[in-house]
Amino acid sequence: MKNRRSVDLKAISFFAMQKYGFKPEFPRAVLREVDAIQPDIAKAIGKKGQDLRALLWSSIDNFDSQDLDQMEYCERGPEGEIHVRIAIADVDHYVPKHSQADQYAAYNGTSVYTGIVTYPMLPDRLSKGISSLLPGQDCRAVIIEYTVLPDGSVRHGSLSRAIVANKAKLIYEQVGDWLEGAAPMPQFIHDVEGLEAQVRLQHEAALRLKKFRTAQGALELETIEAEPLVENGAVKDLVVQKKNMARNLIEEFMVAANGTTVAFLGNAGIPMIQRIVRIPKHWDGIVLAAAMYRETLPNQPDAKALTEFLSRQKEADPIRFPDLSLTIVKLMGAGEYVPLDPGEQPLGHFALAVTDYTHGTAPNRRYVDLIIQRLVKTVIDNVESPYTTEELVDQSAWLTEKEKGSKKVERYMRKAAAAVLLQDRIGASFEALVTGASEKGTYVRLISPPAEGRVMQGQQGLHVGEKVRVTLLKTDPLNGFVDFACTGRAGQ
């Protein structure tokens, strides 16, 4: 039965931004201020700056990303060491504290990626232009240096100012497929002399880092967050972003870079903001979840034991693994921003298996990273911190809530897009997995397309992980509702 209605997903995304406490439009004062900015790269090299434009810098990001925050460069060192430099866009130079752009960015706290419309934290002229590390232009940057040792541990280095130049903007999927042997070398790498060896060295360093963190108990989680594939304003499909070796490379490099930043600020005695995931309060729930898979976890939180359990389940049942991952994520609790005073013991990030962690590598996209960048530059320049401890306490609480809000917007829009995609398939039958079953309701995720919805009929007795057949009853894009009836079971 055909039931297609014209749905304005852009309008829904605007509504969702307002619903969850964001300002979806830049005030005119912000745009006027940003339009008046003129790049001044010639003044970037002073007593504390370096000219690093000759290095073979490259970035790896999504194919359509223009708000580039970081680039990477590696060199081999003595005795198997790999020296890593990470260039972070110097956004603070163009967005001083208390400026109009800063006030807007501080309120929203983050760029919000709905899959339909991107709501940037800073105007495009900045985040996709002047302060972006795009190829073809000289850029101001803060450099984070560290050394990856043969065992995968990290020796923290220094932070400094520099001007840099991106030699190649690489794409996650292309680089990942190449590193995994599933595709030929990307043309961008082929065209730049020496870049193949450079990216392979970066990959080698990332594998070391990952192996070390995994041994420490870093969790290998894989939740499904299907993004809408939109063509000419219409939702054509839902696409799951898959992990690959290129994404792993950037993740490992940024974890190490953020750890180095915490060490740098800590050594300087500067109060800062740390990024944490607490030791799970609901560890008993994680133990029960493992028991459903006939696995036994220790009574006390044990990251290594949990990592080993998850690795076994991923290998044994990759189809259901994302739903197990989601269960574990919910039981662990969300990440938070909390202040960290000099000499205070960091709370650590349980999921990453690191103690010293912050967010300081994406200042075009997250406001907390801009705060961290300002703190770093005060140490480099030997000037007073622009933030009091009380400000950092307030900012930590505010930005934690804004991050939660951004995830709600993004989740809302994934549901709205799924409802639009399925709205002309009322009465169709699908294979699905049960992803939630409680007093609050029973939910399923379709095998294809990977849309989620609620079971309104025939939900009695269903269990999480069970494979079922469902019939689509109703869609409501404005409210993000997709309703199903369970019509049969395929067993455990």
Features:
single chain; 3 domains; 492 residues; alpha+beta; 36% helix; 17 strands; OB fold (Dihydrolipoamide Acetyltransferase, E2P); five-stranded mixed barrel; 13 helices; six-stranded mixed beta sheet
What's the helix and strand layout?
Elements: H1 9-19, H2 28-35, E1 49-51, E2 57-61, E3 70-76, E4 82-89, H3 100-108, E5 112-113, E6 118-119, H4 124-130, E7 138-148, E8 154-171, H5 172-179, H6 187-191, H7 195-216, E9 226-231, E10 234-240, H8 245-267, E11 272-276, H9 283-291, H10 303-316, H11 321-332, E12 336-340, H12 367-381, H13 389-422, E13 429-438, E14 441-446, E15 452-457, E16 467-476, E17 481-489
Parallel strand pairs: 1-8, 2-8, 15-17
Antiparallel strand pairs: 3-4, 4-7, 5-6, 7-8, 9-10, 11-12, 13-14, 13-16, 14-15, 16-17
